[in-house]
Amino acid sequence: MGRWSNTPYEVESLKHITIADLKKLGYLQPNIFLNGNIFWTNQYGERTGAITVIVDTTETDGYITFDYTYNESQKINYKVRLITRPSNLGNGLLWFFVCPNTRKVCRKLHLNGSYFLHRTAFSDVYYEKQLQSKTWRGWEKTFGSCLDDKLYEELHKRHFKKFYNGRPTKKYVKLMKKLNARKEISFEDIERSLLM
Predict the structure, then answer these.
(1) This protein's superkingdom (predicted)?
(2) Which value, to the nearest 10 degrees, does the dihedral of the CA atoms of residues 169, 175, 177, 178 take?
């Protein structure tokens, strides 16, 4: 008989709901009452999950109700409090969740088990980097820019700003440093380090 897996979950692989997603869908506005759906898809565009949300807000706070079926049998319905805080740029208010379990104020809730909660509510959830071996971390530190294909995706994102007021942005400069570092590393160096 097989054993239960005790492999920890990666934060990046969990389903999640963010304040940014709710705003993008038009679900998060002051003085609103509406219900809608959120869908998750895999890399092939196939739907892997769905949830109904009911948003009820005032000018500065409110609630979001999550309604879904977990494991195709367990009906789950609960409320999560929404609050606002002033933007540090002085241009309005920012929305936040209040985790129903930890009471932490956050902008992202993760699904591990049957509820959407702040990531610290789960004892067996780690970031991908925390689960990497020492050897892999060493390779990534030395050859990270060669191993990271997301650099070009980041550079060519739709709203990525390369310049602001005629000067390169910090993010653009940092990205270009990483891309230029690729040119300095030869594949012989990589091959040599793999044989060690």
Answers:
(1) Bacteria
(2) 170
139-178 per-position pLDDT tens digit? 666 666 555 667 777 777 888 888 888 898 998 998 888 7
Last residue of a domain, one of 126, 159, 184: 126
Amino acid at 66: F
Which of 126, 150, 171 corresponds to the end of one domain?
Answer: 126
Q: Are residues 42 and 93 in the same domain?
A: yes
Let me know whether 105 and 29 are in one domain: yes
Angle, helix 134-147 to helix 187-195, in steps of 10 degrees: 170
Domain that holds residue 32: 9-126
